[in-house]
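If your schedule permits, I should be very grateful for your opinion on a structural question. Please examine both parts with care and let me know of anything in them that strikes you as inconsistent. The record follows directly beneath this note:
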Amino acid sequence: MKKKINVMRISLILILCLVFITGACQSNTKTANDNTVYPISKTDAEWQKQLSDEQFYILRKQGTERAFTGEYWDNKKKGIYYSAATGQPLFSSEHKYKSGTGWPSFYKPIDDNAVKELADRSHGMVRTEVVDSGSGSHLGHVFNDGPVPTGLRYCMNSASMIFVAEGDELPGIVKEWQAKYGDKAN
C-alpha cells in the first residue's frame, strides 16, 4: 500500500512538472488568433537590416530590455514616442508617468488605433501584449494597475520606440509614415 502511494505521488509530481515545463517553454510569440494583416510587412532579413540587434530582439522576437536600462524610462522631455519599426506615432509625453517599474510607462496611447492588444501566454503567464498597429511589432505589455483616468499602465521597451522632443527634426522613418498614412500625432 505504501509503495502504491509513493508511485502515485511520483506520478503526480511528474505530471505537474510536465505541465509547468510545457507552459514555461512556450515560444515567446503572439497568439495564433492574431490573423491581422498589417500595412507594413517585412521578412526577418529586412527587419534585421533596418533595426539594431536589440531592436530586432524586442520588436520582432518579443524580447524585453532589463528594467532601468532603457533610454526613455526616466525621460522627462515633452514630445512624441514613435515606433522604431514603422515611424508610427504611439505615445505622447503628456500621458507618460513614473511607474517605478524601470520602463517607460503611459496611461494611454496617443490614438486609440495606434496600438493593438493581443493575448500573450508566453513564459507560463497570461498577459496582454501591446504591438504597433502598423507592423505588429512588439512594444511591451499593458497592465490594469495604472493611474487615473484609465487605470492602465502601458509598460513599453525604450528600444521599441524613437522619441522626438518638441521642436526637434523628425527622423526619416517618421516622415515616411506621415507621407503614407498621415500624422496621427496631432
Q: What stands out?
A: DSSP finds four helices and nine strands in the chain. The longest helix spans residues 2-24.
